Amino acid sequence: MTSKKHIVIAGSTGEVGKHLVRLAFARPDLVVHALVRREGAWKSDPVVDEIIFDYEDNAAYDALFRDIPCDELLIALGTTTAKAGVAGLMRVDRDYPLLLIDALEKAALTRISVSVLLQAQIVRVDTT
Q: Which residues touch 61 (CB under 8 Å, ≥6 apart)?
């Protein structure tokens, strides 16, 4: 029997992130860890491990991948200038993903696999 693959989804409550979570938890070979800002986003889906995460807290990044296993990081974060302004857009669409990837790298996992969803394009980084 093979062990289950652990995936972490950032942006799990957004339009794309919700779809990713639903697709992932339908697969019995995956364990889904969904990063959320507030508790209760995935309470109706007990298969999803809801992780309360504060993207503004640098210490949260340092602890994230020490506290939960991660074989694949899916980043579906995004906002608009109308919602967050230019500075907010840069923070959410650029800074948070970079901080997550840096944290994953610092965790010194033997294999890092990251998928970043940017404006309907998928950018994939896979190292061994």
A: 99, 100, 102, 103
The amino acid that residue 40 corresponds to is G
Could you tell me which of 39, 26, 111 has the C-alpha nearest to residue 72?
111
Question: Which token pair is 119?
Answer: 């404006």
The whole-model pTM stands at 0.83
CATH code for residues 5-127: 3.40.50.720
Helix (H) or strand (E) holding 48, with range, is strand 48-52
| Cross-strand pairs, 75 | 10, 116
Q: Do residues 20 and 76 touch, judged by C-beta distance below 8 A?
A: yes
CB 15 within 8 A of CB 27: no
Tokens representing 25 are 């938890």
The DSSP secondary-structure symbol of 66 reads H
For residue range 66-76, list pLDDT tens digits in order.
Answer: 889 998 899 99
Q: Write the single-letter amino acid at 67.
A: D
Please name the residue that has the structure tokens 């994230």. 64
The tens digit of pLDDT for each residue in 36-60 reads 998 888 877 777 899 999 999 999 9
